[in-house]
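Suppose you are handed a protein chain with no further information: no name, no annotation, nothing but its sequence. What can you learn? This example shows the usual starting point.
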Amino acid sequence: MFRLLESMDSILINVPLSSPLHIKANIIFLKSFIKENGFKIKAFDTNILFFKWMLRDHDFNFRDHVYMDSPVKLLGLYNQIEEWLAAECSKYRGLSMDLRTIGLAYDRLRFEEVLKALDDSEANPFIAFFDEFIEKELKPLKPRIVGIGLTFQDHIISAYIWFPGYTWIFEGSG
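A reasonable first move is to predict its three-dimensional structure. Written in structure tokens, the prediction is:
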């Protein structure tokens, strides 16, 4: 069954709207299975990339020995990051964000609200983020298939900020 896809380059993506402190393993397991069956594949955790994008104007490195040697300083960095995130959120109407959650101006449970969010770049940071991600990361790879991992309904708005031209496979738990 999978041999039919052998000549295709595939991309798997976890979309934002989860804590960067909790890694989602769904795409990692799927990538491993596909790779073990002889296919060329790349995976992106855009949840982590989104947080880095939101903090791109702030200089810090979790791997710095200062934080590795002192849990108290690491907790201080977490507090600083949350302050930076709050400041970055002020650039978008109705956006709230910390290291555990992301809240948008639109209700992800109402379809008409999801549709409104797709065109509102003043409230939806995923529009600018994915425009940049698609241009810099996806287009150069020229994938024929892009699979998007949706674990929770919270992922709907960030997952639907995409453009036509690819075969989309949505994976999800329900």
